[in-house]
Amino acid sequence: MKKLVSGVVISSIFVIMPALGNLAILRAAQLWILLALGVLASVLQPGYNPFTIARRARDKGTGAQIIWSVYAVQLAAIMEAAYLRYPQSVAWDSVAVIALIVAAIGLSLRTWAVLTLGRLFTMHIAVEKGHRFVRSGPYARIRHPSYLGAFLLYVSTTIFLHAWFSAIAAVLILPLAFLRRIHREECVLKEEFGAEYESYCAEVKMILPGIW
Would you state the torsion angle of the CA atoms of residues 90, 91, 94, 97, taken in this order, to the nearest 10 degrees? Predict the structure, then answer.
């Protein structure tokens, strides 16, 4: 229940409130679909506090960078859709449909990654006693499926609104945040698991199956 309430509050702040200057856009389904996606993303992953996550020493600010980068991109997309692109921003064309499908795929991939790790999945970098790294599910094909899923989700939501400036910003900003996090995470995993994790890295690509 706590994650549900948190998801509704945070999603409302970044999806609904920025559009209140254009009440007409709230009559379209698009913002409410994005609100639902935001709530689902919150419920289907471990809870976090965006104001305290940066205090985790091993994270070196990477978790906070991802969270606030996502918030910034989504806020920009809503404002662009409401005040620059409306009413084109709420058109149900092929672009919107494909973007929504990709968003659903991204959320599904991230959720699959979270469920595969179970209690081992956290919003901060931590390896506790008895922890192991998992090679099943999506982790059999790529090392960081949750980040790929999040990238697909949050880039496609900007495209869903035809918010092209925000989409360009998302494509530029989000990879920087995710790659910095991946680099830090893999440094910790190599410290903890040594040759075993090095072998896994040699066998399984980082983010794109069979490519990279």
Answer: 40
Distance CA 167, CA 81 (A): 11
Which pLDDT tens digit goes with each residue over 3-39?
889 889 999 999 999 999 999 999 999 999 999 999 9
Q: What are phi and psi of 178, to 5 degrees?
A: -65, -40
C-alpha closest to that of 34 among 63, 70, 68: 70
* Residue among 116, 101, 120, 112 nearest 148 (CA): 112
**Domains recognised in the chain with CATH numbers:** 2-203 (1.20.120.1630)
DSSP 8-class letter at 140: G
Asked whether 181 and 63 are in contact (CB, 8 A), the reply is yes
pTM beyond 0.90: yes
- In angstroms, the Cα distances linking 7 to 3, 61, 63, 157, 196 are 6, 22, 17, 17, 37
Tokens of 171: 């494509």
Alpha carbons within 13 A on the beta-carbon side of 15: 24
Provide the pLDDT confidence category of residue 130 given band limits of 50, 70 and 90. Answer: low
C-alpha closest to that of 15 among 36, 37, 31, 33: 31
Helix (H) or strand (E) holding 68, with range, is helix 62-80
Mutual angle of helices 145-160 and 94-117, in 10-degree steps: 160
- pLDDT tens for 141-193 read 999 999 999 999 999 999 999 999 999 999 999 999 999 999 999 998 898 88
